[in-house]
Amino acid sequence: MNTPKISVIIPTYLDWDRLQHCLAALVVQSLPLDDFEIIISNNEPSALPPDGFTLPQNARMIVTAVPGSYAARNAAVSVSRGSILAFTDSDCVPAQQWLTAAVTIFENDPAVCRISGPVQLFVPDGKWTATALYDRTFMLQQEKFAALGKAATANTFARREVFDAIGPFDQSLLTGGDHEWSERAQKAGFALCFCSQVIVAHPARSRFRDLIRKIRRFEGGKIARKRMRGDRFILPRLRYLLVPIPRLIGLLRNETLTPSEALRVWLVLYVVRLCSVAEQIRLTVFRGSYERR
Q: How far apart are the first and last CA of the chain?
């Protein structure tokens, strides 16, 4: 069996329908199927794929009992064979040229060690709710992340030697493990290249409760990292209680939003900030448990 150029790593947790769409997009990649393998890391050992679920011929599924997407990714990396590791999520839909565009960059420039690309948000039903607009405006800003040497694992590539040099993801983290790993890679001299042709699509969160769940998980992850660092005093960001008028002005100047949309996004932003403070207080003052969903 030929060794593939790329190993595509996909963690999943009870997300079979969207995973099937992701795999369908990988089957029609412009890169030949023999040039890449797909490793799916099922993070719920008690769950089996539903009837009718199909795996591409170049894909295999492993089961990871340790909870968390970073543990799932690490397990998949440990059994992968490619010299290039490609990361995406089960709810992402890679563009047809996704793998080819990344391989071309790596082959043309041996100095490139890491690549990230755009994550383009969409709504399956075409209805941009205020929550979805907020998600599109503020989340998964890959080009901004890249300026800091960071990338979300929804769309990032790395040569295997980077993992060999700095180690795997920190699977003790609830969230932010991709940025923590990126920081280690950047400090070790493995610079990140942003490529606008390396594209995946990602569904925007349309329901407010899904957004708040992510915000709670995000806040918990930040507090957990501070506790791991040994910080003794972790204070809630009470300034978030202030009405963010400058943010409204900035949103009204955003050319991708109508004035009405800008106002709706701003209202979501303010409620999100209030929820963030409430979660920070719950975790730091009342020592509540972390959100893991």
A: 38
